[in-house]
Write a structure and sequence with these properties.
Length: about 325
């Protein structure tokens, strides 16, 4: 008998969900193209080195018939880096894209391992101009998708990088600290700073950072965040700063942002600056800012407002 069960973390999308997610994806993509973002499509399967210098167990990895290790793409931005380095595309340039991405999640969490993303990349433009355009276009994409309530959260990749560099922790301890930060465990962070003291203890415990460190690099990163949020104050709904925001992807190097809503636990949007990505592919460093929107999360936020007449709405 042939199997009728799905592979772990995979789900059928029926009727209401399939139609609504199709509409969300196309509304966002159409909006971005009208705003001057050039449409790009990259393959679902790539050599594993496009995404990581070492084999990542969180990715779907396979050997092809020639014995080469390939991966189902866990993100699309890394592929943009490969495109810039391997084609005759000239910068500055602005891309938009959409497609499936794949990541293994812990089995017991019940999360999907396949997601639909749409997003942008702004490459080779002045960074402040690119950051502002990225944030505004993310807001407009959420509005086009019908998301009613959401909040932008800003951070800077350099903030936690400085802390991890100073602490110089073994890999196990670094993973422990990252887990406390990700879970926003104040108790865990207080215990950790007692065992591993540094000038950033109070910052990790989420108190007033500017008054508690004299690190020039740290304060410069804070200044850039304040400038950006002040310039965007009249254009955005509610905003917050999270100085201990972990980068959604390892190649972020500067200002970052996420967008959250009331009805879903995960971010609708993750974005930021990633100037160093292109050097991995032998290209020169370029100013780059991008974001990706999780269409599955957007659907969870809007599905109660969508009407559909199917017998098996999901």
């Amino acid at each position: 008998m042939k199997k009728t069960t799905l592979a772990l973390g995979m789900h059928d999308k029926l009727f209401k969900r399939a139609r609504t997610m199709y509409q969300i994806e196309h509304r966002i993509c159409d909006l971005l193209m009208t705003k001057g973002f050039l449409r790009i499509e990259t393959p679902t399967l790539e050599h594993f080195e496009v995404f990581s210098d070492v084999v990542d167990n969180g990715n779907y990895n396979f050997f092809d018939k020639n014995g080469d290790l390939v991966s189902l793409r866990p993100d699309i931005t890394s592929q943009i880096g490969r495109v810039i380095a391997s084609t005759q595309v000239h910068t500055p340039i602005k891309f938009s894209y959409s497609g499936k991405v794949f990541n293994y999640n812990e089995e017991m969490r019940g999360l999907s391992n396949e997601h639909t993303q749409a997003g942008i990349e702004i490459i080779g433009f002045p960074v402040h101009q690119a950051m502002e355009e990225a944030v505004i276009s993310a807001k407009e994409a959420l509005d086009a998708a019908g998301v009613k309530n959401y909040k932008f959260e800003f951070s800077h990749a350099r903030l936690l990088q400085l802390i991890f560099e100073e602490l110089d922790l073994p890999a196990v301890k670094e993973a422990e600290l990252a887990a406390y930060i990700r879970d926003k465990s104040i108790t865990g962070l207080k215990e950790f700073t007692k065992e591993n003291p540094s000038q950033y203890d109070k910052v990790l415990e989420q108190t007033k950072a500017r008054q508690l460190t004299d690190s020039e690099a740290f304060l410069t990163a804070l200044d850039s965040l304040e400038v950006l949020t002040n310039r965007l104050a009249d254009s955005l709904p509610e905003t917050t700063l999270d100085l201990a925001q972990l980068p959604a992807v390892p190649y972020y190097t500067g200002m970052m942002f996420k967008v959250f809503g009331d009805k879903v636990p995960d971010a609708f949007v993750s974005g930021g600056r990633y100037d160093k990505l292109f050097e991995r592919f032998g290209a020169t460093e370029l100013t780059a800012v991008g974001w990706a929107i999780d269409v599955d999360s957007v659907y969870q936020a809007v599905h109660d407002d969508v009407e559909f007449g199917g017998d098996l709405d999901d």
